[in-house]
Design brief:
Elements: H1 2-9, E1 15-20, E2 30-35, E3 38-40, H2 43-54
Antiparallel strand pairs: 1-2, 2-3
Length: 70
């Protein structure tokens, strides 16, 4: 719930990712992702992995930035 709250509360956030851990089996670990206020899951995560592995994606025209404002 914290990831979803933060992505909605901090209006500048357009995306968020959280690595999840479990006291259960390692296959129960994973990711939670939000892009443009929408939860990314299942097949969408698999597709994102394929795009990332292929290297077939655009590079941003300017670097992002990090702020400890909050």
């Amino acid at each position: 719930p914290v990831l979803y709250f933060c992505c909605n509360y901090f209006k500048q956030a357009i995306a968020g990712i959280m690595i999840t851990g479990s006291h259960n089996q390692p296959e129960d670990n994973g990711l939670k992702m939000v892009i443009d206020k929408k939860t990314i899951h299942s097949e969408d995560i698999q597709e994102l992995g394929k795009i990332s592995a292929s290297g077939n994606f655009s590079i941003a025209s300017y670097p992002g930035e990090y702020s400890e404002k909050y």
